[in-house]
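Hi L., both proteins are below.
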Amino acid sequence: MTVTELIIILALIAVVGLIAMPSFNRMTVNGNLRSTARDIQGRIAYLKERAMADNTRYTLIFDKDNNRYRSSDMKVDEWKHASSFGQSIRIASVNFGGGFTVAFETRGTLAQGGNIVLSNGRGSTATITCNLSGRSYVQFRMK
């Protein structure tokens, strides 16, 4: 193999890499949104189970303005930031009867159903919907 052939091969690899880079970036940013939504959904399921097992009321509180959330089983000053999964992840809206708190009763049911909408810098969204029975599901709209 000559030096010229090697340079041509390296140039082709560089061109293919440049073409693939935007797709890889999109996949990474949307993957971060999916991870954040699944983490919050997992926290909701965990709190439902804890409420039933402990016969105690548990809550998940969202602070949309500071892009963070915490559950009642965490330390008082301990918050989890939505952006910990990716810089562009934001809590776009939270609506549980006009409030920002998911409250599980002792039977694992919700005091008020509602949803949480997360977004990223690409305009993709993840909507976590919780019904009164405490079940939750996520719908993604990726861009």
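That was the first. Here is the second:
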Amino acid sequence: RRWRINDNLPGSADFCPLVRRTPAVEQALAFDLNDALKDLDNAFGADILMRTASWLTFKESRASFLIEKESDQGDRIQRFAHVIAQYCGQLDDPLSEESLHTIQQGILGQDALGLGLRRSPVFVGQSTMREDIVHYIAPHYEDVPRFMQGLKAFEEATKGAAPLARAGVIAFGFVYIHPMRDGNGRIHRFLINDTLNRDGAIPDGVILPVSATITSSMDFRVGYDRTLDLFSKKLMRRYAGCYRFGELKTYEDGTRSNFIFSDYEDARFAWRYPDLTEHVLYTGRVIEHTVRTEMADEARVLVLFQRAQQQLKEVVEMPDQDASRIIRSLKENGWQISGKLKKNFPLFEDDATSQRIVEAVRSAFETEQ
């Protein structure tokens, strides 16, 4: 007797995640992203998504550095914003080694060392006065190509499935493989938007500031760390006594490391078959909040700002750039005219004109929509 096997597994032997269709997951996946974006258009204007695109891209980039506890990274924030705008949904195969090299180079800069798939061991941890604490161990660098092929197999096998689930699995699967020497976290969050774009869940040019949502509240920030820990803590409990720090060695990609893990082969099953149920649930929560709250708030601010510009120009005609500077200064200084504003704009020497300008701008923000 012959048997036909229906291979409907979401991946391959190199990477095949589990996502349990719990009631909570089903509810998260029921969120209609396209409808929610249309609601924004209906509420704030048909082109609101395009008008906020540049700012939302920059906001996503800036928040991504906050997640990694890096601030005051002006040039790097601009570079990552450029990468998001240029490559999100545009690369033929975003998980290929060539594409990842391109994304990483855009994030880190042309002169960054050790670009491409890593050729050295890596762990996520922290240093204290007494010791190095290891929170997570990534797969052996020799296994990285096969795990990435497995992740690509998942991407191929699940095309047409729920975009939110695919985005969560691809993004978190990537960060656990940790294939790059640097930039893994930013690429991980880039892949959320990239997957949603490829699946047609968001239009070209629209970026969901998911990193801004993650940093927007303690609940989401702690939830992000807790979600990452779901896999890493189980791995570390099993292999807590299997790593050590030995002699410092320089690896092929230029990394100098003394980290030694003795059970890569035994641990392969964990990296191959992760349970990413909670990761998909968290991704769904973040995306819904991003659209319903973060993007709605930004759209509301933009509408008010444009109203203020219009009312300001009814008092005194001026270029948009000058109007924006005046509006920002007045708003930041509690509707008071600063000395710097008077110095840069002599029109504020006239008290009557000044009063009309302040009232025009303030009323735009205080009038209910």
